[in-house]
Amino acid sequence: MPTKDSITVRDNRTGREYEIPIENGAIHASALRNIKTSEDDFGLMSYDPAFMNTASCKSKITFIDGEKGILRYRGYPIEELAEKCKYLEVAYLLIWGELPSESEYKEWVHNITYHTMVHENIKKFMDGFHHDAHPMGMLVSTIAALSTFYPDAKNIFDEGSRKLQIHRLIAKIPTLAAFAYRHSQGRAYIYPSNDLNYTENFLSMMYRPSWTTKFEPNQTLAKALDVLFILHADHEQNCSTNAMRSVGSSHVDPYSAAAAAAAALYGPLHGGANEQVLRMLEEIGTKEKIPEIIRQVKEGRRLLMGFGHRVYKNYDPRAKIIKKVAQEVFEVTGRNPMLDIALELEKIALSDDYFIKRKLYPNIDFYSGIIYQAMGFPVEIFPVLFAIPRMSGWLAQWQESLTDPEQKIARPRQIYIGYGERHVPPR
Ligand code: CMC
Fold first, then answer.
1. Number of helices (H), then strands (E), in the chain
2. Contact 101, 153 (CB under 8 A)
3. pLDDT at site 270
4. Which residues are catalytic?
5. pLDDT in the model for residue 292
6. How far is the CA of 13 from the centre of ligand 1 (A)?
């Protein structure tokens, strides 16, 4: 008699029945391999392009309920973390599983702060890029280049080495990001300042004039950036995290895996979307043009950037928090005129049948770009601002996958639909 936590599958080709156990609401895809028409049959596979309904891992890091609009890191609701914690506490939580005690936090901040400097040769490397190189391209390349500076990083099963590379990557990514920006502006690089906190230091490396050592970042803006970093830190198995896990599964060093993850984030459907949202809002320009844009979207001629999500079929909880952050930022910077267009666009889209039927709501990228622009960041740097905090999520997921005994090198199957054997004609 079959147990309760299982399904019974009847193969109509053979009339045979199979019992497949259900664990954590899933069946093991390899259980399907027992379903065969003959002894030499390969066995049944599941076909799931874009992983629409396939879990690639078990994870304890981030929980999302897309229907209810819930996001939690290690069990803590994103709303509480954004309100009560600092980004580096959240990074610690993601990577080590618990919020740090006071002494753990002190040590963690010290380790991150004292790894922010990069090798001088990185500057030469950066100088090699053309003046109009996209900062995200420069970031991806320099993250990869770090692997050549730290050959010890290949000892991925040495806990101490892993910890050191985690410190280095979280510490150095703001430095690389700021250097990429300064290069694109033709301005001198600014070294990290160890007396500033994580976001203050980043703002200093971005904006401090090179002729002075004095720079006092605006506290409201530094705090708002910290909240934005918390919101972007992890989002379970998204495209770039999947790249981190997949490339990491070959046991390459974490710099190479993180460069692959950053490359995945660069795309306009993922971390590049915030840049595309701003370009779209700039193109729209006035509220009067919104109905025409909505018409083009409904005719399938374009996407409404910053709308829709693979997992959320409800309002993205991060977008709600961001709207609040926007108000705080605008009190300092003045209101970004793009906000009015965005609010109107959201209003019209959310009352339109096309969007309601498809459960398309604003995602995190819809408002983040407007805030970044008000803070003075150029549009090209937006995906870089996503990559900086997502590094902690990538590293948490990478470490979890390396220490998971069920994981192996990622290697999907395919369904071959090409030619059967054929022969090269005489020539
Ligand atoms: N504008 C217009 N129509 C859309 C949009 C959009 N932004 N997103 C989805 N749809 C439509 C899509 O055409 C499809 O319609 P139909 O059923 O008639 O073919 C339906 O909604 C389902 O869409 P899908 O493409 O099957 O959904 P997906 O889960 O494969 O795609 C997505 C998710 C985020 C890639 C997509 O919604 C999108 O391209 N959005 C715009 C880009 C964007 O804002 N990306 C940021 C995502 S959040 C940050 C991150 O995690 O990186």
1. 17, 5
2. no
3. 87
4. 270, 309, 365
5. 93
6. 37
Q: Determine the Cα–Cα distance for residues 74 and 97; give it in Å rounded to an integer.
A: 6
CA 407 remoteness from chain centre: 21
Averaged pLDDT in 10-residue chunks for the chain of 427 residues: 83 97 96 96 96 97 94 97 98 98 98 97 95 95 97 97 98 98 95 96 96 91 97 97 98 98 94 88 93 94 92 87 90 89 91 93 89 92 96 98 97 97 97
Q: State which of 235, 236, 309, 370 you would mutate to test the pocket of ligand 1, scoring each by most atoms of that ligand within 8 A of its C-beta.
A: 309
What residues have CB less than 8 Å from 414, skipping those under 6 apart? none
Measured in Å, residue 306 CA sits from the centre of ligand 1 at 9
Cα dihedral value 247, 254, 129, 211, nearest 10: 150
Structure token digits, residue 305: 């950037």
Angle at 106 between CA 74 and CA 328, to 5 degrees: 65
As a whole number of angstroms, the distance between CA 322 and CA 170 comes to 23
Give the whole-angstrom CA distance, residue 131 versus residue 348: 40
Residue nearest ligand 1's atom 4 by CA = 303
Alpha-helical (H) ranges within 114-197 are 120-127, 135-149, 159-185
Domain ranges of the chain: 6-47, 85-402
Q: Specify the length of the chain in residues.
A: 427
Q: From the CA of 236, how far away is ligand 1's center (Å)?
A: 18
Q: Which two tokens stand for residue 199?
A: 């976001």
Locate 88 and state its tokens: 């580096």
Write down the H helix ranges in 249-381. Answer: 254-266, 273-284, 290-298, 317-333, 338-350, 353-357, 364-374
Edge-to-edge strands of the sheet including 62-65? Answer: 62-65, 70-73, 76-77
Count of C-beta atoms within a 10 Å radius of residue 72: 17
- Taking each helix axis from N to C end, the angle separating 382-402 and 159-185, rounded to the nearest 10 degrees, works out to 170
Ligand 1 pocket, 366 CB below 6 A? no
Q: Is residue 356 within 6 Å of ligand 1 at its C-beta?
A: no
> Is the Cβ atom of 64 under 6 angstroms away from ligand 1?
no
In the block, residue with structure tokens 């003045």: 334
Domain 85-402, CATH 1.10.580.10 — does that match?
yes
**How far apart, in whole angstroms, are the C-alpha atoms of residue 96 and residue 166?**
11
